[in-house]
């Protein structure tokens, strides 16, 4: 592995190119198998703690209240409004049911308010009809409508339904329509999207033979030596960079396989990353930027947007900061579709991919 430190507080020797140790090389199939086992344990724990494994629309009112008090549900709702937004998704506004609202839960003007709950923006939820009978023969009716919370307030919660594209799927649209005039509750679901993606990747790696390994995989798992670093003159875009940050950028641009920029908090790693991205864009490179959280990636998008760099933010609009929504894939797709329909032509543009 190649590494560089950007901290002015720490003084390490010049970055050295790692040398492979075949005795320490990691078995890729064994690594993938171990990750699959750990992923399964993690997912099972998430499902069990979500209290949803056996929960259906027909649970008792007492159980629903218990789930709300523990942060897993929100009861006593009615569908008050439906609109289209967030990249073509159907967005439903769910307000407290005025028929069951108590004086304690009403605002000064008499408007019913939601009780305390643990539903947050970005949560995956299922909206069910509390009037479902336990002996219903149509099990599909128990599924309810599933969506992502986009906004919460003391008088309503907003939930987006449907998939990416020019609107919700027919079955999603119909499921939302069926909620009108009914007494509803929303229950938080375990989000298995990330789990499924990681599981599929590890399953693919586990089945790979040595002939299927890319050069990058061989380097990352210690099976081969990284390619020699190249050197080039760099004309820096940001004049405020310090010498340590400039060294890190030169080092990363010269690495042909892997570069690791390391430094304690507050030493300017994100600042350095922005310069590195701009340098790569200037060199006509295609870039995928990933982060450990939505906020970390949104922060990168915000900084790049100020430089007028073409950016596409991948992710559910409900989980993005409002300041980066205009750069989201779904919003850009809707805008492009509208432009195409109006002018009869499309727009081709290359940009950095943010995930």
Describe this structure in words.
There is one protein chain. This protein has 355 residues and is an alpha/beta fold. It folds into three domains: 1-18 and 226-285, no CATH class; 61-189, Beta Barrel (Elongation Factor Tu (Ef-tu), domain 3), CATH 2.40.30.270; 286-355, no CATH class. It contains nine helices and eleven strands. It has helices at residues 28-49, 61-69, 170-177, 193-207, 215-220, 243-254, 269-282, 294-305, 329-343; strands at 3-5, 73-85, 89-96, 124-129, 145-152, 157-161, 184-188, 260-262, 288-289, 311-313, 352-354. The chain has a six-stranded antiparallel barrel. α1 runs antiparallel to α4 and α6 (243-254) crosses α7. The radius of gyration is 25 Å and the shape is globular. The two termini are 24 Å apart. Residues 1-19, 164-168 and 338-355 have low confidence and may be disordered. Residues 241-336 form the DNA2/NAM7 helicase helicase domain. This is DNA helicase. Pfam families: AAA_11 (PF13086), SMUBP-2_HCS1_1B (PF21138). It comes from Penicillium olsonii. Residues 35-175 form the Helicase SMUBP-2/HCS1 1B domain.
Chain-wise SSE layout:
Blueprint: E1 3-5, H1 28-49, H2 61-69, E2 73-85, E3 89-96, E4 124-129, E5 145-152, E6 157-161, H3 170-177, E7 184-188, H4 193-207, H5 215-220, H6 243-254, E8 260-262, H7 269-282, E9 288-289, H8 294-305, E10 311-313, H9 329-343, E11 352-354
Parallel strand pairs: 1-8, 9-11, 10-11
Antiparallel strand pairs: 2-3, 2-7, 3-6, 4-5, 4-7, 5-6
Helix pairs in contact: 1-4, 6-7
Domain Helicase SMUBP-2/HCS1 1B: 35-175
Domain DNA2/NAM7 helicase helicase: 241-336
Region (Disordered): 128-147
């Amino acid at each position: 592995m190649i590494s560089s430190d950007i901290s002015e507080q720490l003084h390490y020797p010049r970055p050295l190119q790692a040398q492979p140790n075949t005795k320490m090389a990691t078995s890729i199939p064994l690594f993938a198998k171990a990750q699959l086992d750990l992923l399964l344990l993690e997912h099972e724990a998430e499902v069990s703690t979500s209290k949803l494994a056996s929960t259906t629309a027909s649970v008792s009112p007492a159980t629903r209240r218990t789930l709300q008090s523990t942060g897993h549900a929100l009861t006593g709702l009615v569908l008050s409004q439906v609109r289209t937004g967030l990249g073509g998704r159907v967005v439903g506004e769910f307000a407290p049911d005025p028929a069951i609202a108590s004086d304690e839960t009403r605002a000064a003007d008499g408007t019913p308010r939601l009780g305390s709950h643990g539903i947050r923006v970005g949560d995956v939820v299922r909206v069910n009809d509390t009037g479902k009978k336990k002996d219903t023969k149509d099990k599909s009716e128990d599924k309810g409508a599933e969506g992502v919370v986009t906004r919460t307030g003391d008088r309503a919660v907003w939930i987006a339904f449907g998939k990416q594209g020019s609107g919700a799927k027919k079955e999603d649209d119909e499921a939302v329509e069926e909620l009108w005039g009914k007494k509803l509750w929303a229950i938080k679901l375990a989000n298995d999207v990330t789990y499924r993606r990681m599981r599929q990747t590890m399953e693919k790696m586990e089945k790979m033979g040595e002939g299927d390994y890319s050069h990058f995989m061989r380097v990352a798992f210690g099976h081969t030596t990284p390619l020699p670093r190249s050197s080039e003159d760099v004309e820096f875009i940001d004049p405020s960079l310090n010498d340590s940050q400039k060294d890190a950028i030169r080092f990363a641009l010269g690495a042909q396989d892997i570069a690791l920029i390391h430094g304690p908090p507050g030493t300017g790693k994100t600042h350095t990353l922005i310069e590195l991205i701009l340098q790569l864009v200037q060199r006509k490179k295609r870039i995928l930027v990933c982060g450990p959280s939505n906020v970390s990636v949104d922060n990168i998008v915000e900084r790049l947007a100020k430089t007028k760099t073409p950016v596409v933010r991948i992710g559910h609009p409900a989980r993005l900061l409002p300041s980066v929504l205009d750069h989201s894939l779904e919003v850009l797709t809707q805008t492009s579709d509208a432009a195409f329909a109006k002018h009869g032509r499309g727009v081709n543009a290359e940009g950095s991919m943010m995930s």
